[in-house]
Amino acid sequence: xxxxxxxxxxxxxxxxxxxxxNRHCDxxxxxxxxxxxxxxxxxxxxGLIALWREGLLAQKVLLxxxxxxxxxxxxxxxxxxxxxxxxxxxxxxxxxxxARARGYKFDASKIARRRNPAVSISVTDGQLEFERQxxxxxxxxxxxxxxxxxKALRLRPHPMLRVVxxxxxxxxxx
Length: 174
Known about the structure:
Layout: E1 4-6, E2 12-14, H1 27-30, H2 45-62, H3 76-79, H4 84-101, E3 121-124, H5 125-142, H6 144-152, E4 161-164
Parallel strand pairs: 3-4
Antiparallel strand pairs: 1-2
Helix pairs in contact: 2-4, 5-6
């Protein structure tokens, strides 16, 4: 039996989610896409669910199945890879792994490609730090204890990313 997660506005949805509509999400969160470079384990429940949905939306964009968000800067790093659909699929597999570790039942059939551990994209250490600070600001409101822990954690990237020296990535909206 799938666990039920309470979403911010109190609407219940099944853990077995796909793209679906955003009617249960808070409107400010649905205005921008965030494909975190940080390891999915640092996200709270709300952040992990949003990441899954936004990753699936990015996958639809890269597959040419939607007209919205086609020019979103967060997609530039995926488009720059040899195979953007394989890259987003690899990204989503790691999100799915974290969801399963928490007992959530995200639908793996939504991922376009099979696992490919050879897919890797670089990310700067400056980007990871930027995202840590961004996430801490969000978590101060939603989960102050997690925000406090995140301050002290050693930064870990998403499993498909390899860290290189540098500042905030050019695709980041600051």
